[in-house]
Each structure stands twice: as C-alpha cells, then as structure tokens.
Write a structure and sequence with these properties.
By secondary structure, the protein is of the alpha+beta class. The protein is built from 4 helices and 2 strands. Helices cover 59% and strands 17% of the residues. The protein has a two-stranded antiparallel ribbon with strand order 1-2. The longest helix has 17 residues, at 13-29.
C-alpha cells in the first residue's frame, strides 16, 4: 500500500488510483485481508529504479468495470 500511495504523486497516478480501488474491494470481501493469490491476478507490477509501479492487469480492468457498474 505504501508503494501505491507513493505512486499517487507520480505520472502513473490513474493506475495507482485503480489499484487502490481493487485493493480496497478485496480487503472488504475477505475480512480485512488482501490475499496475494487474488491481488496478483488483478494487478501487474513493474519494477523500475528503486520503485514499483502498479497497474491493473487485463483481468483487473474487467474487475474494475464490474465494480463501477
């Protein structure tokens, strides 16, 4: 979550906002926990110099569409 919050100030802000939305939904579905088995399927992580960049995977984008309907 710290990496996502840091990403909110960078050029990939929209991706971070989408991933935070996914994170919060997963957390509410599983008694306050976010299991890596679910998170990893919905989010892609790219590593660049000393930081991680998150973005919704293709499945994560479909998941977000369902949340927003």
């Amino acid at each position: 979550m710290v990496s996502l919050e840091n990403q909110l100030t960078a050029e990939y802000k929209k991706n971070a906002e989408d991933c935070i939305e996914i994170y919060n939904k997963l957390k509410s579905m599983d008694e306050g926990r976010v299991w890596s088995s679910k998170w990893d399927a919905l989010v892609d992580v790219r590593f660049s110099t000393n930081e991680r960049r998150y973005k919704p995977s293709n499945i994560g984008a479909i998941f977000l569409q369902g949340l927003r309907k």
